Protein backbone atom coordinates (compact mmCIF):
# COMPACT_ATOMS: atom_id res chain seq x y z
CA UNK A 1 0.00 0.00 0.00
CA UNK A 2 1.25 3.46 -0.86
CA UNK A 3 0.03 6.93 0.03
CA UNK A 4 1.06 10.35 -1.22
CA UNK A 5 1.12 13.09 1.41
CA UNK A 6 1.56 16.84 1.38
CA UNK A 7 2.37 19.05 4.36
CA UNK A 8 1.66 22.78 4.38
CA UNK A 9 4.00 25.36 5.83
CA UNK A 10 1.09 27.69 6.49
CA UNK A 11 1.97 31.40 6.30
CA UNK A 12 0.34 33.39 9.08
CA UNK A 13 -0.41 37.03 8.35
CA UNK A 14 -3.11 39.49 9.31
CA UNK A 15 -6.46 39.04 7.55
CA UNK A 16 -9.75 40.92 7.65
CA UNK A 17 -12.41 38.28 7.01
CA UNK A 18 -13.13 34.56 7.14
CA UNK A 19 -13.26 34.65 3.34
CA UNK A 20 -9.57 35.60 3.23
CA UNK A 21 -8.76 32.63 5.44
CA UNK A 22 -10.85 30.32 3.27
CA UNK A 23 -9.14 31.56 0.12
CA UNK A 24 -5.70 30.83 1.56
CA UNK A 25 -6.73 27.35 2.70
CA UNK A 26 -8.24 26.57 -0.69
CA UNK A 27 -5.03 27.70 -2.40
CA UNK A 28 -2.97 25.15 -0.48
CA UNK A 29 -5.50 22.35 -1.01
CA UNK A 30 -5.79 23.02 -4.73
CA UNK A 31 -1.99 23.11 -5.02
CA UNK A 32 -1.74 19.71 -3.34
CA UNK A 33 -4.55 18.39 -5.54
CA UNK A 34 -2.39 19.07 -8.59
CA UNK A 35 0.05 16.48 -7.21
CA UNK A 36 -2.77 13.93 -6.80
CA UNK A 37 -2.14 13.48 -3.08
CA UNK A 38 -4.11 11.32 -0.66
CA UNK A 39 -3.52 13.42 2.48
CA UNK A 40 -2.82 17.06 3.23
CA UNK A 41 -1.55 18.13 6.67
CA UNK A 42 -2.04 21.66 8.02
CA UNK A 43 -0.22 22.92 11.15
CA UNK A 44 -1.31 23.23 14.75
CA UNK A 45 -3.16 26.43 15.73
CA UNK A 46 -3.12 27.85 12.21
CA UNK A 47 -6.74 29.01 12.66
CA UNK A 48 -5.50 31.58 15.19
CA UNK A 49 -5.11 33.65 12.03
CA UNK A 50 -8.85 34.26 12.37
CA UNK A 51 -8.20 36.22 15.58
CA UNK A 52 -6.38 38.86 13.53
CA UNK A 53 -9.71 39.80 11.91
CA UNK A 54 -10.29 41.82 15.07
CA UNK A 55 -13.29 43.40 16.68
CA UNK A 56 -15.09 46.68 15.92
CA UNK A 57 -12.20 48.65 17.41
CA UNK A 58 -9.58 46.81 15.38
CA UNK A 59 -8.21 44.92 18.39
CA UNK A 60 -7.41 41.26 17.84
CA UNK A 61 -10.02 38.81 19.08
CA UNK A 62 -9.22 36.82 22.26
CA UNK A 63 -8.56 33.09 22.16
CA UNK A 64 -12.02 32.51 23.66
CA UNK A 65 -13.53 33.80 20.41
CA UNK A 66 -11.92 31.17 18.23
CA UNK A 67 -14.57 28.46 18.85
CA UNK A 68 -17.18 30.80 17.33
CA UNK A 69 -15.55 30.02 13.95
CA UNK A 70 -15.82 26.25 14.39
CA UNK A 71 -18.87 25.72 12.19
CA UNK A 72 -17.36 27.76 9.36
CA UNK A 73 -14.01 26.03 9.70
CA UNK A 74 -15.58 22.57 9.59
CA UNK A 75 -17.83 23.45 6.66
CA UNK A 76 -14.86 24.80 4.71
CA UNK A 77 -12.67 21.73 5.17
CA UNK A 78 -15.52 19.25 4.81
CA UNK A 79 -16.46 20.82 1.48
CA UNK A 80 -12.87 20.84 0.20
CA UNK A 81 -12.33 17.20 1.21
CA UNK A 82 -15.50 16.16 -0.63
CA UNK A 83 -14.66 18.23 -3.72
CA UNK A 84 -11.07 17.05 -4.05
CA UNK A 85 -11.29 13.47 -2.74
CA UNK A 86 -8.38 14.19 -0.39
CA UNK A 87 -8.14 13.37 3.31
CA UNK A 88 -7.56 16.75 4.93
CA UNK A 89 -5.95 16.97 8.34
CA UNK A 90 -7.05 20.48 9.24
CA UNK A 91 -4.21 21.10 11.64
CA UNK A 92 -5.77 22.02 14.95
CA UNK A 93 -8.58 24.40 15.80
CA UNK A 94 -9.52 25.60 19.28
CA UNK A 95 -12.88 24.18 20.34
CA UNK A 96 -14.81 24.61 23.57
CA UNK A 97 -16.66 22.30 25.92
CA UNK A 98 -18.15 23.81 29.05
CA UNK A 99 -15.68 26.33 30.44
CA UNK A 100 -12.65 24.67 28.84
CA UNK A 101 -10.90 25.21 25.54
CA UNK A 102 -9.38 22.26 23.68
CA UNK A 103 -6.68 22.19 21.03
CA UNK A 104 -8.40 19.81 18.64
CA UNK A 105 -7.03 18.14 15.52
CA UNK A 106 -9.58 17.37 12.80
CA UNK A 107 -9.50 14.71 10.08
CA UNK A 108 -11.86 15.40 7.19
CA UNK A 109 -12.64 12.33 5.08
CA UNK A 110 -13.53 12.62 1.38
CA UNK A 111 -16.92 11.05 2.12
CA UNK A 112 -17.88 13.87 4.49
CA UNK A 113 -17.02 12.25 7.83
CA UNK A 114 -15.17 14.32 10.43
CA UNK A 115 -12.99 12.77 13.13
CA UNK A 116 -11.20 14.46 16.01
CA UNK A 117 -8.16 14.04 18.24
CA UNK A 118 -7.77 16.43 21.16
CA UNK A 119 -4.22 17.34 22.13
CA UNK A 120 -3.28 15.11 25.06
CA UNK A 121 -0.30 16.92 26.56
CA UNK A 122 -0.73 20.63 27.16
CA UNK A 123 2.19 23.05 27.37
CA UNK A 124 2.53 25.46 30.30
CA UNK A 125 1.62 28.42 28.05
CA UNK A 126 -1.56 26.71 26.86
CA UNK A 127 -2.58 26.05 30.46
CA UNK A 128 -1.62 29.38 32.00
CA UNK A 129 -2.49 31.81 29.21
CA UNK A 130 -5.32 30.02 27.38
CA UNK A 131 -6.90 27.78 30.05
CA UNK A 132 -6.62 24.78 27.73
CA UNK A 133 -7.89 21.37 28.76
CA UNK A 134 -6.23 18.09 27.84
CA UNK A 135 -7.80 15.32 25.81
CA UNK A 136 -8.26 12.03 27.59
CA UNK A 137 -8.00 9.37 24.88
CA UNK A 138 -5.92 8.34 21.90
CA UNK A 139 -7.71 7.77 18.59
CA UNK A 140 -6.50 5.83 15.58
CA UNK A 141 -8.19 6.34 12.24
CA UNK A 142 -8.83 3.84 9.48
CA UNK A 143 -8.66 5.17 5.94
CA UNK A 144 -8.69 3.47 2.57
CA UNK A 145 -4.93 4.09 2.44
CA UNK A 146 -4.06 2.67 5.86
CA UNK A 147 -4.37 3.28 9.57
CA UNK A 148 -3.07 6.58 10.90
CA UNK A 149 -2.85 8.58 14.10
CA UNK A 150 -2.67 12.33 14.76
CA UNK A 151 -0.65 13.61 17.70
CA UNK A 152 -0.23 17.32 18.19
CA UNK A 153 3.16 19.00 18.66
CA UNK A 154 4.05 18.45 22.36
CA UNK A 155 2.34 15.03 22.23
CA UNK A 156 5.09 13.62 20.04
CA UNK A 157 7.64 14.35 22.77
CA UNK A 158 6.12 11.54 24.85
CA UNK A 159 7.24 8.15 23.51
CA UNK A 160 4.57 6.17 25.37
CA UNK A 161 1.65 7.66 23.44
CA UNK A 162 3.29 7.02 20.06
CA UNK A 163 4.03 3.45 21.14
CA UNK A 164 0.31 3.08 21.86
CA UNK A 165 -0.59 4.38 18.41
CA UNK A 166 1.75 1.87 16.75
CA UNK A 167 0.46 -0.95 18.96
CA UNK A 168 -3.02 -0.15 17.68
CA UNK A 169 -1.85 -0.46 14.10
CA UNK A 170 -0.96 3.07 13.01
CA UNK A 171 1.79 3.07 10.38
CA UNK A 172 1.74 6.82 9.74
CA UNK A 173 1.75 9.50 12.41
CA UNK A 174 0.70 13.02 11.47
CA UNK A 175 2.16 15.61 13.84
CA UNK A 176 0.93 19.18 13.28
CA UNK A 177 2.93 21.66 15.32
CA UNK A 178 3.31 25.35 16.14
CA UNK A 179 6.61 26.52 17.61
CA UNK A 180 7.85 30.05 18.14
CA UNK A 181 11.61 29.55 18.17
CA UNK A 182 14.40 27.18 17.22
CA UNK A 183 14.41 25.47 20.60
CA UNK A 184 10.75 24.48 20.38
CA UNK A 185 11.05 23.52 16.74
CA UNK A 186 13.97 21.19 17.33
CA UNK A 187 12.34 19.58 20.38
CA UNK A 188 9.49 18.51 18.14
CA UNK A 189 11.65 17.66 15.13
CA UNK A 190 14.20 15.55 16.99
CA UNK A 191 11.53 13.61 18.83
CA UNK A 192 9.71 12.95 15.54
CA UNK A 193 12.90 11.27 14.32
CA UNK A 194 13.14 9.26 17.52
CA UNK A 195 9.56 8.05 17.17
CA UNK A 196 10.21 6.75 13.63
CA UNK A 197 13.22 4.78 14.85
CA UNK A 198 11.52 3.36 17.96
CA UNK A 199 8.33 2.30 16.20
CA UNK A 200 9.46 1.89 12.58
CA UNK A 201 6.73 4.22 11.30
CA UNK A 202 6.50 7.32 9.13
CA UNK A 203 5.98 10.73 10.70
CA UNK A 204 4.57 13.64 8.70
CA UNK A 205 5.02 16.95 10.46
CA UNK A 206 4.66 20.65 9.74
CA UNK A 207 4.46 23.99 11.49
CA UNK A 208 3.26 27.54 11.13
CA UNK A 209 5.45 30.22 9.57
CA UNK A 210 5.02 33.99 9.34
CA UNK A 211 3.59 36.21 12.07
CA UNK A 212 0.39 37.56 13.59
CA UNK A 213 1.60 40.90 15.03
CA UNK A 214 -1.67 41.60 16.88
CA UNK A 215 -2.31 38.13 18.30
CA UNK A 216 -0.74 37.25 21.64
CA UNK A 217 1.61 34.24 21.59
CA UNK A 218 1.41 34.02 17.78
CA UNK A 219 3.86 36.81 16.95
CA UNK A 220 6.78 34.45 16.45
CA UNK A 221 6.69 31.26 14.39
CA UNK A 222 9.53 28.96 13.38
CA UNK A 223 8.43 26.11 11.17
CA UNK A 224 9.40 23.51 8.61
CA UNK A 225 7.48 20.61 7.10
CA UNK A 226 9.08 17.21 6.78
CA UNK A 227 8.28 13.59 5.99
CA UNK A 228 10.44 11.43 8.25
CA UNK A 229 11.29 7.74 7.92
CA UNK A 230 13.02 5.06 9.99
CA UNK A 231 16.81 5.12 9.62
CA UNK A 232 17.46 1.96 7.66
CA UNK A 233 18.66 0.91 4.22
CA UNK A 234 15.38 1.19 2.23
CA UNK A 235 15.04 4.83 3.31
CA UNK A 236 17.21 7.96 2.91
CA UNK A 237 20.30 7.90 5.18
CA UNK A 238 19.13 10.84 7.31
CA UNK A 239 15.58 9.52 7.56
CA UNK A 240 14.14 12.45 5.61
CA UNK A 241 12.06 11.82 2.50
CA UNK A 242 11.45 15.53 1.99
CA UNK A 243 11.62 18.76 3.97
CA UNK A 244 10.72 22.36 3.24
CA UNK A 245 12.74 25.53 3.39
CA UNK A 246 12.69 26.78 6.98
CA UNK A 247 10.05 29.50 7.47
CA UNK A 248 9.05 29.48 3.81
CA UNK A 249 5.46 29.64 2.53
CA UNK A 250 5.26 26.31 0.72
CA UNK A 251 4.06 22.73 0.48
CA UNK A 252 6.16 19.57 0.48
CA UNK A 253 5.03 16.24 -1.01
CA UNK A 254 6.28 12.66 -0.74
CA UNK A 255 5.22 9.07 -1.39
CA UNK A 256 5.03 6.66 1.55
CA UNK A 257 5.51 2.94 0.88
CA UNK A 258 3.91 1.04 3.76
CA UNK A 259 5.33 -2.27 2.57
CA UNK A 260 8.82 -0.98 3.36
CA UNK A 261 7.80 -0.59 7.00
CA UNK A 262 6.81 -4.25 7.14
CA UNK A 263 10.12 -5.16 5.53
CA UNK A 264 12.33 -3.31 8.01
CA UNK A 265 10.30 -4.56 10.98
CA UNK A 266 11.04 -8.10 9.84
CA UNK A 267 14.49 -7.88 8.24
CA UNK A 268 15.91 -4.44 8.99
CA UNK A 269 19.41 -3.65 10.19
CA UNK A 270 17.67 -3.21 13.53
CA UNK A 271 14.19 -4.44 14.40
CA UNK A 272 13.24 -2.08 17.18
CA UNK A 273 9.54 -2.84 17.18
CA UNK A 274 10.00 -6.60 17.33
CA UNK A 275 12.83 -6.39 19.85
CA UNK A 276 11.06 -4.36 22.52
CA UNK A 277 11.49 -6.01 25.95
CA UNK A 278 7.94 -6.50 27.11
CA UNK A 279 9.21 -8.72 29.90
CA UNK A 280 10.79 -5.62 31.46
CA UNK A 281 8.45 -2.77 30.50
CA UNK A 282 4.82 -2.41 29.54
CA UNK A 283 3.61 -3.59 26.15
CA UNK A 284 1.20 -0.84 25.19
CA UNK A 285 -0.66 -3.14 22.83
TrEMBL record:
Top-level taxon: Bacteria
Keywords noted in UniProt: Hydrolase
CN hydrolase domain: residues covered: 3-258
GO molecular function: hydrolase activity
PROSITE patterns the UniProt entry points to: CN_HYDROLASE, UPF0012
Family of the protein in this entry: Belongs to the carbon-nitrogen hydrolase superfamily. NIT1/NIT2 family.
Stated name of the protein: Carbon-nitrogen hydrolase family protein
Amino acid sequence: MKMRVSAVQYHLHTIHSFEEFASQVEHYVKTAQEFEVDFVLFPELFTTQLLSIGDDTGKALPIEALPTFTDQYRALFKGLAEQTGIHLIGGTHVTSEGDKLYNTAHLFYPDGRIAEQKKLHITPTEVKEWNMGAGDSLQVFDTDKGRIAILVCYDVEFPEIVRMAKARGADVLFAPSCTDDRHGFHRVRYTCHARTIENQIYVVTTGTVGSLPTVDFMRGNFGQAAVITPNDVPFPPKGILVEGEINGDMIVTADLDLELLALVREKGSVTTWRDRRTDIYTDWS
